[in-house]
Structure formats: C-alpha cells, structure tokens
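Hey team,

Filing this mostly as a record. A colleague (T.K.) asked me to run one chain through the structure pipeline before their review meeting, and I want the input and output archived in the tracker in case anyone asks later how it was produced. No errors, nothing strange. Just documentation.

Input sequence:
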Amino acid sequence: MTKAYYMDFTTEEIKAFSELFSFDGKDFLYLSKNQINKINNSSTEAGIVLSYIKRHKIKIKTSYVLIRIIIFEALKRNYKELKLKNYLIYDPRKITVYNIDKVTDYLNDINSLLNLEDIHKKREESLFRGQASFGWRLLPSIYREDKWIENEDLMIKEMIRRFPDFLNDDKRIEILTKLQHYGLPTRLLDLTENPLVALFFACDDKNSEDEDGRVYYFSPEEREIKYTGSDLVTILSNISKMDGNFGTESLMRSNNLARFLWFLQEEKTNFTQLLEPDAITQWCFVKTNLNNERIKSQTGSFIITGTGKNKSDVKEIIDKFEERKILFIVDRKRKKDIMDELKLLGIYEGSIYPDLTKNAEFIKNKYKEL
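Output structure:
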C-alpha cells in the first residue's frame, strides 16, 4: 500500500504529472519503464515531477512500481474514474480490460465476449493478434524502419530476382503473403482465427520476457473482410510496386497514375475502376489462399494497409485500426507457465512453424531441458 505522504501533491505538481503523462483523449496509458523514464527529460514538467520524486527520496530505477502508483494517483486528481492494473492506467467506461493469468480463464473470457457480441451485432469473424510487448504499436513490419518503407519496391524486386520460381504468382497479395512468412518486411500485419495461436505470440519473445504481452481482438463485419480477388486488395497490394514517394500527393500526376493503373490492369485486365486519391488510403482485413503451411498452421489472415501523402505517412491509417476497445493483457510473470499450458494443448513452436528447421530446434531444446 502506498503511504499517504506520497500523495501530498501541490497544484503545480498535479499539472506537471498530467502534462508529462497526458491522458487527454486517451482510453488508456501504458506505463512501461521507457514511459516512466520521461521523468528524466529536460522539459519543465519533467523537472517538477523529478523534484517531487527526489523530495520523497524515491530512486527511479528501483521503484518503478511505486512510481506507477504515484502517477496514477496524480492523474486521478483530474480523471476520477481511472483504474490501475499492472502497468496499465485506463478508463473502464471506455474500454474493457482482461488480465490473462492462465489459458482456461483466457478462453472463458473470450467465450463470454463472443456471446455478448452475438447479442449486439452480426459478427462474420473473430480475429486475434498476439504481441509479446504491450508497448509495441500495431504496426506492419515495413513501417518499422524508414529505409524499409522508402525502398519497399526495391526490396521485393530483389527477392523476386533471387527466387523467381517461388515468387511467380500473378497476384501481388500472394507474393506479399509469402514474403511476410519468410521474414521480409511487408505492409501486411499477421492475424489469426485461433486465439491460442495469438496467445502463443503474446508470450513467445525472449527479448520481451520482462514485459507484459498483449492480445488484440478484432470482430470485423462481413463487409470489412476482403479476399484475394478484391479490387481493394489489388489496389493496396500493388502500392508495394511504387517508389517511396508514392501517395495521395503524387497519384494524380499523369505518369504516376498511368503507371499504377498499368500495374493494376496487369493483374486484373478488366480493372476499370476510376481511381481517386482516397482509394489508396484505405486498409482492410484480407483472407488469402491457404497455400502456405505456416498460414494453415496459424489459421492466418491479415490486415493490409494503404498509404498517405507518401508511403511513410500512415499514422492516420494505423490509428484507425489501432482503436481497440477490448484489451487482453498477458502478465509477464505468467508467460512461461502459459507457454507450458499451450504446449499441452498442441500449441508450440513446432506446430506454429511446421518446417524442418523449427521442429529440429524444438526437439533439440526439449531434450536439452530434460
């Protein structure tokens, strides 16, 4: 329990906490160590908060739990409805938070959630994504390095040059799907229909063992799900053939528009859709053909993203599909136990990645740990 004298905030200190750890316009705030270390930056607000910390003789590096509680109490002065769960400060009026301690409880929570959603709307699919660190953004891999998105077209050309027989598909989305599952950054974001597969990925990262994991839940309606032959999927996947400057600002230049339309008609000869700039700013859920063993084993689907004024300008697109009102948090201290439970249910590295290399690694580690 936090001692009462830690809550002797002045008006100036409450204001500084609220500005440094802003909750304005948010449903939740995840207080990772990196987030808390904002106290050490050079802003006026950070200086005031740091003075408060020092006044109470608190050492930041050894007192993250206490500091989270203090931040929470300071924010509650202005946002009285807030709740604190592990690293997460959230508004329970806006989002629902589930804490995952074991697999059975997780499945019960999902079952209750699906039953509740069936009452309120017709749901076509339930899709999930697991991430080993709660603090990671819901971001397709191509956007995680500036040089990758700037050279997206060249990276793919290089792979096709090296593996022409393997990457000989007529549809660009099928090429992106193969590249995604062999590790090349793409504009696809992996999803799964199996909540246990998502939970596996929320626990499976040795570099994130000390961080809470997260499972995203999506419930798209029928109209939001597209397939390989969709016009929208054709448009979004063929953006990957254009250079890094391609976007809404350059689309309507005659040479760019003609080139992009040529790519679309190369794939679909009857493509006559009139292209407006906002056609390339969309995103959608896409279900590709199950012609890859990893996709089959992971019951995989994807989100595919478009572009903004240029390829690097995707903040608004990402923000739209990142607005999740249901949060599943995987307790970092329970990750190993959860992985053991999943193994009993047939969800382990060898089943997720059904190739010789991964299965050999799984068997090697299994006997090493005996």
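Quick notes for T.K.: DSSP finds 17 helices and eleven strands in the chain. Residues 249 and 309 are 5 Å apart (CA to CA).
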